[in-house]
Write a structure and sequence with these properties.
Length: about 475
């Protein structure tokens, strides 16, 4: 099966203990391991039975991969209570019901699925929304097959606790008793960074109390929120300030930086730019250039931009010296190898740059950070690259106050609680999360004060001040 990752024996044993905790199975009990692979969890049940001198329940392992299912069949041949079934768990072909379900569902994002699979899953599963992952669907199907008062224990990525894509799953889980959430060690699966989470659910009414075991060993008990909102703030215990606004309400744009699809062609060090190319350049900065060593946001490179200010791609016949540069063998070859040229001209960016929004006073931050930090581009003259997020306030006069709030511990706590995890406990900032950042009432009121028009900087004036395109047949950025 796509996304198969073997589960360490120690983790398997811990999960099986939770599966049967206070509810040992009988010989007639039924256990399901969906996506069983070669039978790691079935082996775990056999070990548990031996340790506890218990009866062996009826066990069904489901596996779609022929090679793994055959190995599992050979491994458990001669044990009548164990059956291995070669089938796709998500196909809906299984109509049995089970007292216990345990396993490690496959982690496969929507990018790893065919168009046929996407359509099939979206038609069949309420959790198949947005950029879904297969493990979300495994949760839904398993809960469907679980008997009343039955128990499920899954190990999955922690992202279902907070990402928008998992809203339907959190709504579904709200109908049941989420007994325990353990944030397992990030090294559980070796080099594979998943931030694993072991979730224990009983198919009964929610008790109103969920045990949480955090990665630092701390244990707490929480009451999960009943809506689709993120559970992570409750789990990590971040600050929950009172607020009456969201960051997105005060911003013209919150977005990742410009993705050219070929920075090695479009981004040049300033000292390497020939004079004929300079009219097409705008200073640019990457995430690695944001830091204490560059407090003034000095842009050491510039981006060659074949677009007008309003987002129109300059006709190839009007590119002049830029066209000569891009048509060089090495550059043209790299540009034409990009996937975006299937739907765009060969020299277009991967994404059209919204220059009218970008070229304003703004706040910048790295896309992946150990702790969030923000910097101000007062001049508005910098084009951030795709490793940088930028925040353009509607009112340039609030840029200092806004940046001060974003660098506060209140904002940092909320972001740490709501952002996706990256390797080494870093967090991944994303525009959809930044837009939802709560603004406390007294700060929001400050941001709502009338704009000081003297501090507003029009983007076309900003650009015109630093660069003039001499040839009228090229483009007019101030238009």
């Amino acid at each position: 099966m796509k996304g198969f990752v073997p589960t360490p024996e120690s983790v398997v044993d811990r999960m099986v203990e939770r599966l049967f905790r206070d509810r040992p199975p009988s010989a007639s009990s039924t256990v399901l391991d969906p996506g069983c692979g070669e039978g790691a969890f079935i082996q775990g049940i056999l070990r548990w039975r031996k340790r506890n001198g218990a009866e062996l329940p009826q066990i069904l392992g489901v596996e779609s991969d022929s090679r793994r299912s055959r190995r599992a069949e050979r491994e458990f041949a001669g044990i009548p209570q164990i059956q291995i079934r070669k089938t796709d768990f998500l196909s809906g072909s299984c109509d049995d019901s089970f007292d216990y379900i345990v396993g490690n569902p496959p982690y496969v994002s929507i990018l790893g699925l065919s168009e046929i699979e996407k359509r099939l899953y979206r038609a069949r599963y309420s959790t198949a929304q947005g950029r879904f992952d297969l493990y979300l669907l495994f949760f839904e199907q398993a809960l469907r097959l679980l008997k009343e008062d039955g128990r499920l224990v899954f190990i999955t990525p922690e992202k279902y606790l907070y990402v928008d894509t998992a809203n339907p799953l959190r709504m579904l889980l709200n109908r049941f008793d989420v007994e325990e959430i353990e944030l397992a060690d990030e090294s559980t699966f070796g080099p594979l960074v998943t931030y694993p989470t072991v979730t224990t659910v009983s198919k009964r009414r929610y008790s109103g109390r969920t045990k949480v075991i955090r990665r630092d060993g701390a244990i707490k008990h929480i009451a999960l929120c009943s809506g689709e909102q993120s559970w992570m703030p409750l789990i990590v215990g971040g600050a929950q300030s009172k607020f009456d606004a969201l960051l997105g309400e005060f911003c013209l744009r919150i977005s990742a930086g410009v993705a050219t699809g070929a920075d090695e062609v479009f981004v040049l060090k300033n000292e390497e730019i020939d004079n004929p190319l300079r009219p097409f350049t705008i200073p640019t900065i990457a995430g690695r250039e944001l830091g204490n060593e560059n407090p003034r946001l000095a842009a050491r490179s510039s981006m060659l931009i074949p677009y007008t200010l309003d987002g129109r791609l300059i006709p190839e016949s009007k590119l002049g010296s830029l066209g000569l540069y891009l048509r060089q063998d090495g550059a043209a070859r790299k540009l034409k190898a990009r996937t975006c040229v299937r739907r765009k001209p060969w020299y277009a960016f991967h994404e059209t740059p919204p220059l009218r929004d970008i070229l304003n006073p703004k706040i910048l931050c790295k896309d992946i950070v150990a702790s969030p930090r923000f910097w101000i581009d007062r001049s508005g003259e910098i084009v951030p690259r795709h490793s940088v997020y930028y925040i353009v306030p509607k009112n340039a006069a609030i840029v200092d106050d806004l940046c001060e709030f974003l660098n506060s511990e209140t904002a940092a706590d909320w972001l740490r609680s709501n952002c996706q995890r990256a390797a080494n406990n870093f967090i991944r900032l994303q525009s959809r999360v930044l837009k939802r950042l709560p603004i406390p009432g007294e700060i929001a009121e400050r941001f709502r004060r009338p704009a000081d028009q003297s501090l507003q900087i029009a983007s076309h004036k900003t650009y015109s001040r630093r660069s003039v395109l001499g040839s009228s047949e090229l483009l007019d950025f101030a238009r």
